[in-house]
Amino acid sequence: RSELRGTAMKSHEANKAVIKDRAKTFAQRLGLNSSTVYKWTEESSCTEDPSCRYPSGSRNYLDVMEQMMEIAIAFGDPREDYISPIVYLEERFKRIGIDIPENIRSIKPTDITRELLKTAKEFGDLVTVSSKALEKDGIDKKENEKIQREAWHLLRQTVALMVLSNLQATGKML
Question: How many whole angstroms from its chain centre is CA 173?
Fold first, then answer.
């Protein structure tokens, strides 16, 4: 985690947390030069220069992914498309990310409750349809993947709404 409380983790910090002092081993397994992998864990010498594009010692896969997402945003792609790489990793490593709305302070408690009820109903509908399909003919692999994707989406949405509700109830808005 970032040592500066309240600041976002930087790509080199994330890489250092994974790579630690094993740059050579990671490089061998990834088929890369060890100095490249080592540089991924270093803070850039140009951190004070606003024109410096890459905040780590060397442009790394996280910097590339961030740039790809920014390009997709500039194209006007919908959020669910440009966050797909993050969603993929969340699903792959059994994690749930929570979207925090930019207008969090202006969301009314009644809107959160309404959305939470709507999401719960959608989840119930998904479970009902899945159960009926399972009883009738079973669920093929493609249908199962679709159901799982929708379930993860609804679960993320439910958790986000519950967090928002708690933040509003405790007065600890971000």
Answer: 21
Q: Which two tokens stand for residue 137?
A: 């003919």
Contacts (Cβ under 8 Å, ≥6 apart) of 155: 96, 123
Low-confidence ranges of the chain (pLDDT < 70): 1-7, 44-57, 100-106, 171-174
Find out whether 41 and 19 touch, Cβ atoms under 8 Å.
Answer: yes
Q: Which amino acid is at 93?
A: F
Ramachandran angles phi, psi of 56, nearest 5°: -110, 175
Q: How far is Cα 15 from Cα 37, in angstroms, rounded to an integer?
A: 9
How far is the first Cα of the chain from the last one, in angstroms, to the nearest whole number?
A: 19
